[in-house]
Amino acid sequence: MKRTAMIGHLTPAHAGQTVTLQGWVNRRRDLGGLIFLELRDRSGLVQVQVEPDSAAFADADRLRAEYVAEIEGTYHARPESQRKGGLADYEVIATRVKVLNTAKTTPFELEKGDSVAEDIRLKFRYLDLRRPEMQRNLVLRSKAVAAVTEYLNREGFVQVETPMLTKSTPEGARDFLVPSRQNPGEFYALPQSPQLFKQMLMIAAFDRYYQLARCFRDEDLRADRQPDFTQLDMEMSFVELDDVLSTQEGLMAHVFRETMGVDLPVPFPRMAYMDAMNLYGSDKPDLRFDLKFTDVTDLFQGGDFKAFAAAQAVKVIAAPELTRKQIDELERIAKQNGAGGLAWLKRDGDGFTGGISKFVTAQAAELIARTGIEQGGTLLFTAGEWKKAVGALGAVRLALRDLFDLAAAGPQFHVSWVTEFPQLEFDDDSGTWTYMHHPFTAPHPDDLDLFGTDRQGEIRAQAYDLVLNGFEVGGGSIRIHDPAVQAKMFQAIGFSAEQAREKFGFFMDALEYGTPPHGGIAWGFDRLIMVMSGATSIREVIAFPKNNRGVDLMALAPSPVEPGQLADVGLSVATSEN
User: Fold this and answer.
1) Which helix (H) or strand (E) holds 151?
2) Reaction catalysed (predicted)?
């Protein structure tokens, strides 16, 4: 027989009807001759009662956890004494049970999956994905894809697929390389992003493009990164920055409304990069809670406290009362993020005690006035080179968020823009300038004359990041469409004309054939779904992810290949001798 309904689609209107359900046995209990089953499918779970005099009893007696079964019976309300409200008040009285397949004992209890080591869950991912939490995450992802497609199609975007085998170009991370059998000694690269192709689609007169693009980066992994991942990629012609941002706000609001029933307030607030760093120590600040830095560099400059006197920046954050153990842990976090240490004070009346209190008697009143620190509260300081000082205190800010659950008082979701990033940043290791986003980002038109001068570090980029709950879930920019400006950008990052042509010659040629003003953005789609679902890792919202070492434990990849396969592409594996 065919199933008549998904379990989760049953409603009180089905009461009294005969239903046929198919799914997996979640649990089985024998009580006084009665057999109680829980049957589970992707949509939900229902209790099934099999009575001892039922023709179904013998077959039900064979069932064990994770067997696949078909159950026919009457859907009806449970006894009034067992009702608690909702669909759990209904059950199926079985008249027929059919075992569709048996199952081995699972290597872990699915109901306890959250407490199982992640490597075990990934090795048996097909079982892990049966858990309701995982199914909810992937259904949410599917709904988000549908919402994106609906909105962008309605807004006139054209979906175009770009190549998966392409040329290796410098985009900030290592490429995954693919040897070419037909061209010995030459290699394709898997795309880190479709950046150049989507810009060439604008040159090709496709005014609005989108793609859910598979991208690949050979980089160290974290909880919010995978070697292969999905970007929602978009590009628009004949636009300015505000046009791109307003379109993205409409799309994001639509996705949240359609998938979660959440109304995001639009427009999203905007914050310049320097303000984000100076106030929150991050270019992706979590704004669900309001805990800002105060700049007190001037209070200590040239003073007696040498650790602060010559510092480029002295930043302070006002925290609740902290124990010494908590302060020590926050100092460890600050040092881990580049600070030399974490100075502290505890407010006591009109002054301070503990920590560096003997150095701040003259500044005490002004510190209290500027920071608004409450009685018993703790001031935490970082000092030194500006970027390290703000970055370390930013990490401390997030630790305070987690320690005191500060985000709980704010909205469930907070979306904002960070704009006006620097076009260039200086790489101390190489002693050269490099791009902050990518070399195709357009500079602010008022800053063009700064290229090639000793002030080129002040050039503002027409770049923007989309930030959700302290995660960067999107990044983009208005692009360079003038070949002369593109040449200046390549020169600024140290590319000779020959090097630029070697790497990007095909793109530079395309710019010469009537390139419209254009801009776009890419969303980290896995990361977005992670935040929406409340998961702590993007591995929880990807069906078959790699672990934190880049290994697929289920398929056992990466793995050796046959010598003949290597020979086909002119490669051999070098072994090192100890």
Assistant:
1) helix 132-154
2) tRNA(Asp) + L-aspartate + ATP = L-aspartyl-tRNA(Asp) + AMP + diphosphate
Distance CA 522, CA 3 (A): 42
Distance, C-alpha 337 to centroid of its chain: 21
The C-alpha torsion from 538 through 211 and 272 to 378, rounded to 10°, is: -10
Distance CA(487)–CA(497), nearest Å, equals 8
Burial of residue 473 (number of CB atoms within 10 Å: 0-12, 13-18, 19+): buried
Side-chain-side CA neighbours of 525 within 13 Å: the count stands at 26
Helix (H, G, I), strand (E, B) or coil at 449: helix
Tokens 């880190």: give the residue. Answer: 192
130/217 Cα distance (integer angstroms): 29
**pLDDT tens per residue, range 252-287:** 999 999 999 999 999 999 999 999 999 999 999 999
Give the pTM: 0.93
Measured CA to CA, the distance from residue 315 to residue 301 in angstroms comes to 12
Give, in order, the Cα–Cα distances in Å from 185 to each of 15, 280, 402, 505: 69, 49, 51, 21
Known binding site: residues? 171, 217-219, 226, 437, 472, 479, 524-527
CA neighbor of 482 nearest in space, from 445, 450, 522, 438: 445
Q: Which residues contact 451 (CB under 8 A, 6 or more apart)?
A: 443, 459, 488, 489, 491, 492
- Alpha helix stretches (DSSP H) within 337-452: 364-371, 386-404
Q: What integer pLDDT is reported at residue 113 of this predicted model?
A: 84
Q: What is the mean pLDDT of the chain?
A: 94
Residue 367's identity, in one-letter code, is: L
Integer Cα distance of 146 and 152 in angstroms:
10
6 phi and psi angles, rounded to 5 deg: -75, 150
* Ordered structural domains, the chain, with CATH: 7-101 (2.40.50.140), 289-404 (3.30.1360.30), 422-460+482-511 (no CATH)
Distance CA 130, CA 43 (A): 11
Alpha-carbon gap, residue 196 to 168, rounded angstroms: 12
Kindly report which listed range (169-178, 531-540, 549-558) carries the lowest average pLDDT score: 169-178
Helix or strand or coil: residue 530? helix
State what percent of residues in the chain have pLDDT above 90: 87
Residue numbers in the known binding site for L-aspartate are 171, 217, 437, 479
The helix or strand, by DSSP H or E, that contains position 57, with its residue range, turns out to be helix 57-62
CB 43 within 8 A of CB 123: no
Separation CA 202–CA 77 (nearest Å): 60
CB neighbours (10 Å) of residue 42? 16
Q: What are the tokens at 80?
A: 């009034």
Query: How far apart are alpha carbons 44 and 240 in whole angstroms?
Result: 47
- CA nearest 113: which of 535, 525, 526? 535
Q: What is the pLDDT of residues 556-570, one digit of tens each?
A: 999 999 999 999 999
The tokens describing 68, both together, are 């696949």
Identify the H or E element spanning 483: helix 483-492
Show the tokens assigned to 15. Answer: 């009461």
User: Which residues, in sequence order, are CB contacts of 430 under 8 Å at separation 6+?
Assistant: none
